[in-house]
Amino acid sequence: MKCNSLEEVREQIDQIDDAIIRLIAERGKYVVQASMFKKDEKSVAAPNRVEAVIEKVRNKAEEYGAIPDMVEALYRQMITRFVNMELEEFQKEKIKSF
């Protein structure tokens, strides 16, 4: 969409930010669920899965015209935070099962 003013540009960016944050929150809910299916902390970290996701998002970045290095950096940070969150959930579930 071609914008006619800086205000319109900012409104569009705000709408995109809202959608991104909503999707991050939704992703987080699935991360919490994933912890219930993991058997140990190593499977929570899942380095092979992380690298597969990074490869996938880099390819998507190229496909959509985004900067692959930036997308990778964002995803690595997000994945690190989600893995930490998942580890916390995993440990809570482990305590409950005792």
Features:
98 residues, mainly alpha, Chorismate Mutase Domain, subunit A, 84% helix
Beta-strand residue percentage: under 5%
Assigned CATH class: Mainly Alpha
Terminal CA distance reads 56 Å
Q: Total strand count, please?
A: 0
> How much helix is in the residues?
over 70%
Total domains, how many? 1
List low-confidence stretches.
none
* Mean pLDDT over the full residue set: 92
Q: What's the overall geometry?
A: elongated
SSE layout:
Blueprint: H1 6-35, H2 41-45, H3 47-64, H4 68-96
What can be said about this structure in brief?
The protein has 98 residues and is an all-alpha fold. It contains four helices and no strands. The longest helix has 30 residues.
Structural description of this entry:
The chain has a single domain (6-96), classed as Chorismate mutase (Chorismate Mutase Domain, subunit A). It has helices at residues 6-35, 41-45, 47-64, 68-96. It is 84% helix and 0% strand. It is elongated and about 60 Å long. It contains four helices and no strands. The model has no long low-confidence stretch (mean pLDDT 92). It is an all-alpha fold and 98 residues long.
